[in-house]
């Protein structure tokens, strides 16, 4: 055997670690919807909108951001070409924001309201294409740790709003019209430059969890840095050179994923070379070491499934369910209902945070702090739920739907805290609701990929996501808004006291508790599936990853 093993240059840039780093960078520029408050003022003033009209445009923003069915269908039609999905997202992002920029700068005549709503819908819809391409590709590339990779992708997306605001403050501060041009160009250029790297690679590696943990650590460091920067900027008036230094540090943190990718690929190259050397030394015996008696490692020591007699058909059960077949199962509607309860009540809470704080006597500074910290709790939920559920699935064999059960009952407690309004209740309640709300963004897509398979994963989880704005509309408008307006009318237009939101949040606590009961049903229905299919499939894949047979091209 020729032992002069030299990985090609192509393999050093075309691998799933570089694909992950590229996806992270795209996610970091895709959260423009979280910065609507920055450019909403310029839309309102230049177009002569009142608050009600601006809220209408915001509704189309939320609709576009959650209606991801088309992006899922496109990914399913071209599963080996994620770049097509990213290209479609880039074109929509540029068109939507660039047309808005031309309008607010007077380069286009003032359009009818429905046309402006279409611009907003187009720009918002782009995020579903970016998100679908990156999340679904990540799940394909890391099927053994799907919760962790979804948490990483969703976590960086959750931080992207804060990242874009930092870019805005250093480049176009107090120029919201220029910020619209930034949103038209930055996500589009980033995606076009990196979309060729985002690909599916069918490989298994022994230590992939270690490198995924490094990406996770970078996400936590970035979140901590952004939190500290935002707090300092609110307290102190920083000079220009200080702001430039903090921005440069942010850029350095954002480049760090590429170093993780380089190290991961180096480790893989070394491991493959070592395997080739060992194979050459035992060339008189062409068979690899037998699996019997092999140690899986400390992270998987509690698997007790016997793979003897397990055939490939059993391991691939339900791998090809499409959207229509998935909608014919009770598990799909269980997930849809739990998503509607959790995401709907979470959105209703954050949308009314200012009014809740005012009614309970919180100061403006306290209310602004609560709103700012919501994104951090959201990030912790997105990232933590994926990582923790993966850990317990691998180590304790806990079915992942168990964590939807836990988060929904915790969310119910958080809504009850806000309802009764005791001192500090809004702080404690918003933390519980924020973390549990964020966790749904990691848990739901991961569970959908496990129950219905990865073949049409993008279409299925994007369809379930529609439950979020449906629940938000019902709870925000028909419950919270209606009850508050009724109480305010009895107090002369402004409501002060715990009674303003007590009934609304008791209702939302009941709604999330009903979601908890449905999630419990999902857990009971799928626990045998996780035991006999998911855990066997994981162990089968982890054992095979001990013997790297793929040679870098």
Automatic annotation (TrEMBL):
InterPro entries: MFS_trans_sf (IPR036259), NFD4_C (IPR056555), Nodulin-like (IPR010658). It holds the Pfam family NFD4_C. Keywords: Membrane, Transmembrane, Transmembrane helix. One of its GO terms (cellular component) is membrane. The keyword Transmembrane helix applies. Its main location: membrane. Residues 16-262 form the Nodulin-like domain. It is a multi-pass membrane protein. It is found in: Membrane. Residues 327-530 form the NFD4 C-terminal domain. Signal peptide: none annotated. The chain crosses the membrane at residues 83-101, 113-133, 145-167, 179-202, 214-235, 241-262, 326-348, 360-380, 401-420, 426-448, 460-484, 496-524. PANTHER family: PROTEIN NUCLEAR FUSION DEFECTIVE 4-LIKE, UNCHARACTERIZED NODULIN-LIKE PROTEIN. Belongs to the major facilitator superfamily. Phosphate:H(+) symporter (TC 2.A.1.9) family. This is Nodulin-like domain-containing protein. It comes from Sesamum alatum. The lineage of its organism: Eukaryota, Viridiplantae, Streptophyta, Embryophyta, Tracheophyta.
């Amino acid at each position: 055997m020729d032992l002069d093993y030299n990985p090609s240059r192509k393999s050093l840039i075309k691998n799933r670690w570089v694909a992950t780093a590229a996806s992270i960078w795209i996610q970091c520029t895709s959260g423009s919807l979280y910065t609507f408050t920055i450019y909403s003022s310029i839309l309102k003033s230049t177009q002569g909108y009142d608050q009600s009209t601006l809220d209408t445009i915001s509704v189309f923003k939320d609709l576009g951001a959650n209606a991801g069915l088309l992006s899922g269908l496109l990914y399913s039609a071209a599963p080996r070409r994620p770049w097509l999905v990213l290209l479609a997202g880039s074109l929509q992002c540029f068109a939507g924001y660039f047309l808005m920029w031309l309008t607010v700068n007077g380069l286009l005549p003032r359009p009818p309201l429905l046309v402006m709503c279409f611009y907003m819908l187009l720009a918002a819809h782009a995020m579903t294409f970016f998100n679908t391409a990156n999340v679904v590709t990540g799940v394909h590339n890391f099927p053994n740790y799907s919760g962790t990779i979804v948490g990483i992708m969703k976590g960086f997306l959750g931080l992207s709003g804060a990242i874009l605001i930092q870019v805005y403050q250093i480049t176009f501060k107090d120029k919201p019209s220029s910020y619209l041009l930034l949103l038209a160009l930055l996500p589009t250029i980033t995606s076009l430059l990196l979309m060729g790297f985002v690909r599916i690679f069918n490989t298994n590696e022994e230590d992939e969890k270690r490198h995924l943990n490094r990406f996770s650590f970078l996400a936590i460091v970035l979140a901590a840095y952004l939190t500290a920067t935002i707090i300092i900027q609110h307290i102190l008036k920083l000079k220009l050179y200080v702001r430039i230094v903090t921005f440069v540090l942010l850029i350095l943190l954002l480049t760090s994923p590429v170093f993780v990718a380089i190290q991961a690929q180096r480790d893989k190259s070394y491991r493959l070379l070592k395997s080739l050397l060992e194979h050459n030394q035992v060339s008189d015996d062409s068979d690899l070491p037998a699996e019997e008696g092999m140690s899986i490692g400390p992270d998987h020591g509690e698997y007790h499934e016997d793979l003897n007699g397990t055939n490939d058909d059993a391991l691939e059960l339900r791998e090809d369910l499409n959207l229509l077949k998935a909608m014919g199962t009770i598990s799909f509607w269980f997930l849809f209902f739990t998503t509607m309860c959790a995401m709907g009540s979470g959105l209703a809470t954050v949308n009314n945070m200012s009014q809740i704080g005012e009614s309970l006597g919180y100061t403006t500074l306290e209310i602004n702090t609560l709103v700012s910290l919501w994104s951090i709790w959201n990030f912790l939920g997105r990232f933590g739920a994926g990582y923790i559920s993966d850990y317990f699935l691998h180590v304790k064999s806990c079915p992942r739907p168990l964590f939807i059960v836990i988060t929904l009952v915790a969310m119910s407690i958080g809504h009850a805290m806000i309802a009764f309004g005791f001192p500090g209740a809004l702080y404690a309640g918003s933390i519980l609701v924020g973390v549990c709300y964020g966790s749904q963004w990691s848990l739901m897509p991961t569970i959908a990929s496990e129950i219905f398979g990865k073949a049409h994963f993008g279409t299925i989880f994007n369809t379930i996501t529609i439950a979020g704005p449906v629940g938000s509309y019902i709870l925000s408008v028909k419950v919270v808004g209606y009850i508050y307006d009724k109480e305010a009318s009895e107090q002369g237009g402004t409501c002060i006291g715990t009674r303003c939101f007590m009934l609304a949040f008791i209702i939302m606590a009941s709604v999330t508790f009903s979601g908890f009961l449905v999630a419990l049903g999902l857990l009971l229905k799928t626990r045998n599936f996780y035991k006999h299919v998911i855990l066997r499939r994981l162990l089968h894949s982890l054992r095979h990853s001990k013997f790297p047979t793929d040679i870098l091209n």
